[in-house]
Specification:
single chain, 133 residues, mainly alpha, elongated
Length: 133
């Protein structure tokens, strides 16, 4: 939002910047099937780390009971098979998942604060020049 200049531009740019991270976050595409040339987007995707933490939290050591009364076949016997399907290591919940989300949050906060500081500084210079005239 800070890079946009005004809310209209920021609102138009947000989906364009978020969509690639969302697509390679692991929900729509298995991590193992991501082409190597998209690895930078994959590793910079905050959705990847959040989705991985969610899956580990929900499915690690979970026993899945399938009723025979259901017409839907049981695909997974336990939660660890779900994690294997998504190529997620159950030990990744703290590092890199949580650590990456914290580092990215601090980084985005620092970048946006710096951009806002630059914008305020530019507007202060403009008002000082008007006062001198």
């Amino acid at each position: 939002g800070a890079l946009g200049g005004n809310p209209m531009i920021a609102g138009a740019l947000a989906p364009l910047m978020i969509l690639p991270f969302f697509l390679f976050g692991g929900l729509y595409q298995n991590e193992a099937s991501t082409p190597y040339y998209f690895y930078p987007v994959k590793f910079l995707s905050w959705f990847r780390y959040g989705f991985g933490s969610l899956l580990i939290n929900e499915f690690k050591d979970l026993e899945i009971n399938c009723n025979n009364a259901s017409s839907t076949p049981c695909v997974f016997d336990n939660g660890n098979q779900v994690l294997e399907y998504y190529n997620i290591d159950e030990g990744d919940i703290w590092f890199p998942n949580l650590a990456s989300m914290i580092i990215m949050g601090i980084g985005f906060l620092a970048i946006s604060s710096f951009v806002m500081w630059l914008r305020v500084r530019e507007s202060d210079r403009g008002t000082e020049e008007k006062k001198k005239k």
